[in-house]
Amino acid sequence: MRFKHKNKCTSQLIQFQMRNVIGNPYVHIFGIGLPVLLAMLITRIACMELQGNTAIIMVSTSVYLGMGTLIPMAVLLMGYAVSYAQELSKGIPERMHLFGFKNSVLFCSCAIAQMLFLLIALVIFFLTGIIISGIKIPTVSGLISYILCIFFFSMICLTLAHGIASICRNFGKTYCVCMILYFAFMILGGMMGIQYEDLPKWAQHAAKLLPVTYINKDFYQIWVGKQYNFMPMIQSFLFFGAISVILLFIALKRPSGVRKSI
Description:
Layout: H1 11-22, H2 25-47, H3 53-67, H4 70-90, H5 92-98, H6 103-133, H7 140-168, H8 171-188, H9 201-207, H10 211-223, H11 231-253
Helix pairs in contact: 1-6, 2-3, 2-4, 2-6, 3-6, 3-10, 4-6, 4-7, 4-8, 7-8, 7-10, 7-11
């Protein structure tokens, strides 16, 4: 593929990055297949002993809202991190730089491609929930709030993934770290069958620092338009975002034998 404008984030470059995203099997397995499968199984199990259509809809919707966070975690924290780590180990960013591509342009085009795939995955996920599990249609404010939360959470995951990959610089280490974080977020966020109230006290303190906890535990209230205190959730976003930015800053300042990627 020939690129006419190497110093601009063009549609041609975004298409190139999109092909790389689609060719990554991790984003299909963990980003689409696993969230849909887990949401359907957990919804079915949770609703087996419930009586009344209202209770079933509430539980189904809560499960899908929480499981929706698995998509940015899988697409960005897992998929992007391991893919970028492989590129770093092969020296691809340095070669692209030598061919006249700015690192900032490559990162921007990659971020756009990742977000486009993330949007497609979310649409498939929630269409499945509406058709099969009958989740509740949100209010306008609830839908906007959820989109904003997923967007900011996705940007944080992208930053964290880039930092981890830049530090580890190979597939094995990056995959190990990201997989540990992936399942830690699932467990602490209450998406592995253990509710927040059932966690040990130290785990509850850790869970309060993660946005996934509030999205999984409380977001049904926002989804249906009820009043909600956003301050603890905002604080978790700020804390998690700060940690991700600090990690990325450390990664970029880390001396290495190769040119820095961004």
